[in-house]
Amino acid sequence: MGQLIGTLQEPNYSRSLPPELWLHCLSFLVVEDLLTLSSTCRSFRFICKDLLFKHITTTIPSKRTVRHIFQPRQEDVARIARARRLLLRLHALQSDGDAREVLGLVETWNIKTFGSPAPLEETEIMQSYSKICFPFVQPSISIFLILPSCRNLRVLSISDIHMEEERWSALVKLPQLECLNMERCNLSSTDKAMTLKVVSITYETHRGPPLVPPPTTQLISSLFNLRHLERLTLLDLNFSDSFLLGLVQVGQFENLKHLSVVVPETHMDTLFAFLSRTPSLASLTISNFSTMAKPSMPILQSVASNLVAYDGFPTLIPILFPGRPVSTICLRMNHRTDSQASLGDPFGVYNNNVVCKALDACSASACLVHDLMLSPFHPTPDSMQDIVRIHPDLRHLRLDILRTPNINMDVDVEEPMSLIMDMLADNVEVRDSDNLSLHSLFLISGFLNWIANGHLPLPAKLETLHLHYYQKAATVCGDAAKQRPLVPKISAAYPALHEIEMGTTRWWREGDCWSHEVLTRIQL
């Protein structure tokens, strides 16, 4: 590594583009292409190194994988090779003084595991193992020893790691660390105060009794800094109640602007007690795993008085919206209103009257609603008419279409489900307005046809329309030939509209010309 770093001397750019332009152009390349380009000449090696080491992802071997390094099995050859390479790289980073230049370039580091997340303990190392040959057996420990050398590290994401005192101490030594994301991590107590602006704690599965006790008040006060914290995500299904109770006791979070939280059944009052300590809160997200309970006491107007964005259930709208300037709304319509029914079932949930009531309640906001998302959305002419009538000033609209019939809709429920699902298949084609049926609304292609043919209205001032399928990771609507004649018809009826996105397909307008793009990733 010392020889590599020694060759990275700054070249002469007098006959080339300025370095910042090269960096901008090359930033669009994937890692594999950057590696290939960096090996072509000295100049590109110098330019690419900043990009190659700016963002690092390290996948550490699990306990089972490391054991197999010493007792290999035929089917584990590839995993063992990966583990060996990782251990050697970590050893090189730790022992090579020249590696500090590389570590100084790192701004984002993602540490995750493959296989079982259980960490390897020293007592479990095979007796025949020689520490002279492999001094870094537990890679998660090695990485935390290296982290303090990353003087420019700003974002750290870790998963499946037991956060004990030694590792907290390593994080405190990072001078530029602003964002810490922890997924499925066990958090032990610490008295190391941190100055993080962004904290995310995610543990969205119940795995039986936790390995560690609930977070202590000391840990919460050390992790969540009163003066610095600006964005907080708490999606821990095991300890979300403990976090909320602890946060209420910490004090006033003057700079907290964004909160995403899962609220247990009996802690809605605790949530609003915490909101009373966040005077700058602008965005609130209530997780789908939360309950629909209402606070037991009236909420003062001073609580979340600056709220401009809400993502959650309609239940809290009458409480949060009056007198507050909420203009961006995402309504999670995936819970039954029937108290006898089980929660979390998105089928046959809300009829049009319930959707209309929720939309009407949003009008209690102190300002006009410009951004609206409904998830899931049961498309009917009546529900679209309600959106246009109640919120005519919408600029941005996103609909997560549920691709199954709602039993509360005017659908022939006696019709065999297999026939209905056949009608919802991707190869269903709507050839003209005469063939438009209610069933075609369950398809994005049919939905677009209804709009183009004037059977579904949109708000007159709408600028962007995003259509996706509910709970589908990749919504593929890539038949540009069928979409091309529809887009100009929609544009003529809605001149303010300049973008239509349908999962992996995006149409956008520049002047009078519409262009088509296939997205490589879903834009959320």
Question: What are the key terms here?
Answer:
single chain; 524 residues; alpha/beta; Monooxygenase; 16-stranded mixed sheet; two-stranded parallel ribbon; 18 strands; 31% helix; LRR_dom_sf; F-box domain-containing protein; F-box_dom
Report what the structure shows.
- With 524 residues, the protein is an alpha/beta fold.
- Among the domains are: 2-51, Up-down Bundle (Monooxygenase), CATH 1.20.1280; 307-524.
- Helices cover 31% and strands 18% of the residues.
- It has a 16-stranded mixed β-sheet with strand order 1-2-3-5-7-8-9-10-11-12-13-14-15-16-17-18. A two-stranded parallel sheet has the order 4-6.
- It is globular, with a radius of gyration of 27 Å.
- The model is unreliable at 1-10, 64-72, 115-137, 336-349 and 406-435 (pLDDT under 50).
